[in-house]
Structure formats: structure tokens, C-alpha cells
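Lab notebook page, bench 4
Experiment: in silico fold of construct C2
Operator: M.H.
Input chain length: 679 residues
Purpose: comparison with the prior construct
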Amino acid sequence: MKTKRTFKRYTITAALPYANGPIHIGHIAGVYLPADIYVRYLKAQQKDVIFICGSDEHGVPVTIRARQEGVPVQEIVDRYHKQIQQTLQNFGISFTYYGRTSAPYHHEFSSSFFKDLNEQGIFEENQSLQFYDEQEGVFLADRYITGTCPNCKYEEAYGDQCENCGSTLSPFELINPKSALSGSFPIKKETKHWYLPLQDYQKWLEKWILEEHKDWKANVYGQCKSWLQQGLKARAVTRDQEWGVPVPIDGADGKVLYVWFDAPLGYISATKKALPNDWEKYWKDKDTYLIHFLGKDNIVFHCIIFPTMLKANGTYILPQQVPANEFLNLEGRKISTSKNYAVWLHEYLEDFPNGQDVLRYVLCSNMPENKDNDFTWKDFQAKNNNELVGILGNFVNRTLVLTQKYYLGKVPVPAKYFDLEEILIANVKELPSRLEAAIEGFKFREALSLAMELARIGNKYLAETEPWKLAKENPERVKTILYLCIQLVAKLGIVMDVFLPFTAIKLKQMLSLEEVNWKHLYAEELLRPGHQLQSPSLLFQKIEEVQINNQIEKLEQNLKKETKSDIQPAKAPISFDEFQKMDIRNGTIVQAQKVPKSKKLLKLLVDIGLERRTIVSGIAQSFDPKHLIGKQVCVLINLAPRKIMGINSEGMLLMGDGDQGELALISPVHQVPNGSQIS
């Protein structure tokens, strides 16, 4: 049997969220809440622990968002980095440091790490074929390629992953791949890149994972085993892109570090930024226990690729645990950010002010630890009203209100214990060790249930003894009952700091409870007789039906928006002669700029062969002006001129609606002369 080793310190990481939009309940249930519970538990045990996270600001999703909005990428990552960081803080996620990968300190560290491996001769330099968008004139990152998944036949899979079945993909595996930039079919073009030779580490990984880490969760171990059985191949660590950490060697102009390479290094760079003098002991000392918290879509990166990078460097510790969670669904459907089918955390706090712990409780009780789980608003209401209000809040309130009523808020002196008291003490005594086992086994749903057991035991005890009926006939017994219940409430103040930190603060304030930690759970007396309590207040409020119906209605409206057809009905027929009156020609955009004081308008100069025309078009929210220059378009040139925002517009571009409501250019498949007629 494997002996449990004692470690001096803990380094806990949580997967970096993409800074391309707000975060939702799936993110917090899958990654940040379990990580925070574990960290708070370690802190309660007075362990030396750091908790590191940050925004992933180099992923293709951020460049896609910037392109959609027509703004610089830096503007996008600045906006969402700030919002995500504030949202996680609002929910009590207790990071030691929350970094960002666009920061100079991260660029410097990632560059240095790459150069170290390159100087050791770790990387392979290879020419390879990659997809290239001829219309855009750029190599396509995997996320800019979409097509049909070869495994589940989902038609909107990305070049690196299918969001429907969760498969990790190569863009060359997609059926009918197309460019997400132009919608065209990309060609394969040769380019040079640097590769991490994963195949050289296959045997080491097999021993390290399959033999030494059989204690990993089944979903993690199984996915790693599957990858290893397929045989590992070299994986590119660079990409042809503008946005990212520039590859820091000669001959690599126009190339950046691939996001999967630089993002996990963000854990180390953030630690170094936060603890410039002590960071190495948290990443290089063998007495440090490293744990990565993440969702199942990140298992391969954190269990195979990142450990290989660290192993290749030779100076870093490797993760002891990677307790990845599955996905959280919403009302029986997959959460979809692109379709706005989600419960966004910042919006939740607008609708349920000070309701952080209610959501933490419900998400923990539904945590997708071993399989995908489901969040429903009805369940949210039931758990709040029946469990938080009916069990936890009820026990605490009854105990403190009765103490205030009979003893002016002072802890009474207990008298003789009877059988019920002995049973109560015995039941409570065994809970801390069971709690520890559940948390350390990453069974957070079970741990929360055990924590709530303290309140259930207390409620049952109050119901059986009915101290409000004994106040006159047996006042000594009442003192004992309330004394024991107060000790239970104090233990709840310690335990709930791990799960419901905002509630724990209220509890400790009402109890005037200070300087307690996990070891005090084993004490029979936390508050001595005569200790003055503060006036009690309700911990939770009932959630009404109308509040829940509003949330369900919001989701249903989003679904209706998504499922309703955007195809307009046919207009009234026109004659062929009327059609021939329209003069539609091919042209090329030679200049493009935003119209001042307008969010929607662009001023375009279009070469239509005969001449160059100024055209004002309401497409600014769909296109970045610099990406339009050189584009061939179809132009209605005999439309009567009209002034728009003081600019004389002399024509109209032909546009179509994309599959997600965005505008799409109507362009010839092949380059044609400007001015050629469309008929």
C-alpha cells in the first residue's frame, strides 16, 4: 500500500479562462469553485499554500472577438480580464495572485522558457503543411478552421476541438474544413515551425501516469491512457500569427508561441510576479504538492503536454493531482456562450444581490465530478428554500434567538448530559475526519453534505428536545441544550468558511468567534459559558416563484432567438425588365475607415473599374476596416446617391447574413476585373 507523504507546501492552479467574454456557472462549477474549496480547506489547516490563476489572453477566441467588434485585441483582453477577475473575486474565489498572459512579465518568462528548451536541442524544426486562407492572406490557427467532426459528425467543430463531443482534433481531421475568417475553403501551404517531440517522452509518461498515478480520477486517468495508447506525436509550439508571445529566435519573424505552450507557463510567471523572492520553492522544491484544477477539455494539456515541457526543462516539479471535472449543463441543454444560453455570473449577482453563497452551495451540490451534471432553476430554488433556509438558516436562527431570549445572548452553563446529548456529541465527533477524507479525495459534493450534517443533527436535536417547552419546568436542561447547539453553530462557522465564505463571516460575527481553524472542529467547547453573542440575523432569504420564472423565461427567450429563422419571406415578384435596371458590378475596396461619431458606419473607397466611388455602409460592427482593404465585393452602382452622416454615398455593397447573424460579404469565388458586370 502506498504510504501517504507529507508535504511542506501546496501550489494550486486553476485553468486560465479565455479573456474573450464573461464567465458563467459552468466555469465556476467545473474549475474555480472546487479549487477554492480545496484551498480554503488547506488554509483552515494552516498549510503553506498559494492559489494561482490568470487570464489567457493569447487564445484565438480573443482575436475572433476583436475581429467581430472591429477593435484592437488589447482592448478586448483588457476589458474581459478586468471583468473576469472582479467576478471571481465577487464570488469569493481566494486567489493568491490572478495574472494575465499579455503582461510583459509573462512574455519575458515564456520567451526565456522557450529559449532554454531550444538551446538544449529539445525542439524539432520542421516544414509542414498548414491551412492557409488565400482570400485573407494568412495561415489559419486551429480555431479559425471549422468543419464536421469526424467522431460525432457535429458540423461546427473547431480545428482543435469538437465542443459537442469533447474530442481533441487536428484541423486536417475535419470533414469539409473552411475558414472562419472568410468562409472560403483553405488550401494547404508549407510553413516552418518548432515542435515538442512528445513521442520521445512516451515511455516516461506511461510509467509516470499509468503506473505512478493510478490514484487519479477515472476520467483523467482514462483519457490519458487513451492518448498514450494511440501513440504520441510531435506537436507544434509555434504558430503563424500576429497576436501572442513572439518566438524569441532568429528566423521566426511573424511567428508566436502557440497558446497551449505559453498559457500553462502563466501559472509560473504569475507566481514569479507575486513572489519574486520565493517563487522557486513553489515550483521546484520536491516538498511542494502541485495540483491543477480544470475542466475535462484541458486534461491532455495538463497531464501530458505541460508535464512534458516541465520534464524537458528538468528543474520543475510535476503535478501530483489533476482533479478535472466534467461539464455542467443548463436546464437539460449544453451551455453555449455563442448562443447566449448560459447563466452569466455577473448577471446573476444583479438578479440575486448578495446571493454568492446560494449559488456556491447549489453548484457544489451539483458539481460534475465524475459525469456531466445539470443545473436547473427549480432545483436552485428548492435547495435554497429547503436546505439553506430550512436546515442551516433555521438551526442557526433558532439557536441564537432562544439564547438571546433566555440568557440575553450569553452562552449558558451546561448541566447534566442525558442520552440525547451523548448521541449528539458522538455523531458530531466523527464528522471532521470524514470531512477531511472527502475533501482530500476531491469529493466536494459529499463533503458539503457532511458539512450540512452538522446543521441537520442540530435541527433534529432541537426538534426532539423542544427547549422552548422546557423553559419553565426544566431550565437547567435548556441551558445544556442551547450550550451544545451554540457549540455546533461555532463548528459550522469553521466548516462553512470552506464552502460558503460569506455566510461564515456572518456566523462568526454573530458568535463573536475569532482566531479559529480546522483543529478546533475536534474541540468539544469552542465558546465558553458567559461568552457574549451578537444579535442574530437571518442567513438566507426564501426565493420566490416569480424570481425563478423570470430566469427560466430569460433562457427560453434566448432559445427562441436562436431557433427562429432569420430568412425573410420572399418579396413581391418583379419583371425581368425591372431586374435589368440594376447595375451590379465587381469592385475592390481600396480604403476603409470608421465614420466619426458612429458605431455602425464605415466609409469605403471602392474601385469599380470605371472609377472609384465613396460608399457609406453600416457594417462597422461586423468588420475591422483594415481587414476589408483589398477585398473584392459586389456593388449596386446605379443606386441614387444620398448623404449619410454628411458623406455622399454613391452605391451599395451586397451583403448576406451569416449563420450567427453577422454580416458576410458577397464576393466572387475567383479574382475578376473591377467593373465586370454581374448578370
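Observations: Residues 564-569 have pLDDT under 50 and may be disordered. Residues 53 and 519 are 28 Å apart (CA to CA).
Next step: discuss at group meeting.
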